[in-house]
Design brief:
The structure is a single chain. The two termini are 19 Å apart. Helix 2 runs antiparallel to helix 3. The chain is elongated and about 35 Å long. 57% of the residues lie in helices and 0% in strands. With 63 residues, it is an all-alpha fold. The chain has one domain.
């Protein structure tokens, strides 16, 4: 899952990509916002919602 990448993973995997310019922290923020928006989707099941909430909670203390 992209949201689980460390700063090192991000730098390594995004090498040569324009997305690297925004940096790991902002990249995670953008993913977190989309995950939060996805929770409002009527097509997600309970398991998917739970997985999204768990992933967001796991990074709740991050900058």
């Amino acid at each position: 899952m992209l949201f689980g990448w460390s700063a090192h993973d991000f730098d390594e995997r995004m090498q040569g990509s324009a997305i690297r310019r925004i940096g790991h922290e902002r990249w995670l923020r953008n993913i977190a916002m989309e995950m939060g928006n996805a929770l409002r989707s009527p097509v997600l099941g309970a398991d998917e919602r739970s997985a999204i909430r768990d992933a967001l909670n796991a990074r709740a203390a991050d900058a």
